[in-house]
Write a structure and sequence with these properties.
This protein is mainly beta. It has one helix at residues 48-51, and strands spanning 2-9, 12-18, 26-32, 36-43, 46-47, 60-62. It has a 4-stranded antiparallel sheet with strand order 1-2-3-4, with no helix packed on it. It has a two-stranded parallel sheet with strand order 5-6. The model has no long low-confidence stretch (mean pLDDT 89).
Length: 63
């Protein structure tokens, strides 16, 4: 599997997988100082408010 696109907003990155059997979700990663990028989860959409985002993000379904 590869990622077709990655979009970043305020320390969060949503990566859209490409390839056979990838489903319809995005892989979400979070960046923190000192530890770098960490895998957060996989899903079809996230709530921007729950992630602490103050601006819209393409991987959010609300907020």
């Amino acid at each position: 599997m590869t990622f077709g696109s990655v979009e970043c907003v305020q320390g969060w990155a949503g990566a859209v997988p490409q390839g056979p059997k990838t489903g319809d979700g995005v892989y979400l990663f979070h960046h923190t100082a000192g530890t770098g990028w960490k895998y957060y989860g996989e899903g079809s959409g996230y709530d921007c408010t729950d992630l602490g985002l103050t601006e819209p993000a393409p991987f959010c379904v609300s907020g």
